[in-house]
What does this fold into?
Amino acid sequence: MEAFTGRSIQGQIAYGRLCFLNRPKAELNRFSRVGAEEELRRVRQARTKTDAVLTEFYERARLDLGEESANIFAMHRLLLEDEGLAEQIETALREQGATAEYAVRAAGRNLVATFRGMEDPYMQARAADMRDITRQMLSFLLGAPPCDPFRGEPAILVADEILPSEVMALNRRKLLGFISRKGSVDSHSAILLEAYHIPAMAMVNLTPSCDGRLALMDGFDGRLYLDPNPALAETLRLRYEAGGRPVSVVKDADPI
It folds into this structure.
C-alpha cells in the first residue's frame, strides 16, 4: 500500500480504480485555405455554439445548486465575448492568414498567460476559465466527438486539472471522485465539485503509472491510499463516525 497527501476539496471517502483523464490532442493546420471571411464565420459559429452550452450549464447549475454556483457560467459567457479575445482571433485570421482553430488556440494561450501573470489571485484564477471556453470553441471547430473519460467503468478521475464545463459534462453516476494533480482548492471547478458533493482532492502528486490502480480517498484528512488493505476503509469510517463527522462512502461495485 502506498499513501499520498494532498489538499481536500470535499470531505468524503471514495473507493475505486484510478482513471487518468486523457484529452485528445489535435494537430492544427496553421494557414487557411478558404480565406479570412470564411474562417471568421466559423469562429462566430463556434462562439454561438459555446454560448449555448454555457447557457445550458448555467440553467442546470442554477436549478441544482443555486444562483451563486450558476454565476460561474455567467462569467464564462462574459469572457467568451471579451474584446481582447475577439481582437486577437480576428487579427490572426486577417493579418496572419491563420485557420480558425489556430487563431482561437493562440489567442486563448496568450490570454491565459496574461491572467496567470497578474498579482490578484482572483484574476489568476480566470486563466482556467479562459482555457475552458477556448477549449470548448476548439471542440466545435474541430468537430470532436465526445469521449468516455471513464473507459466504460466507474472510476476516480485523475488529471492535472478539471475545468468547470467538464464537471458539468461528466457522467456523475460513473464519477466516484476526482483528483487534481496541480489544481487549486479555490478554483471554480473546486467550487462545483464541492457543491455537487463529489469526493475530490487537489495537489496530489500521482504519476501516470498509477492509472488503473485501486485507490481509497480520504477527503477528510487529504490522504490517498493506493492498493489499500481491506480493513482500511472500515477503520476510516468508524474513526470519523466516532468523532461525530458524517461519512459518505462512494465506491464501485467491488467490495473492499
The helical segments are 36-64, 67-80, 83-95, 100-116, 121-142, 164-169, 188-195, 232-242. The mean pLDDT is 89. The first strand starts at residue 2 and ends at 5.
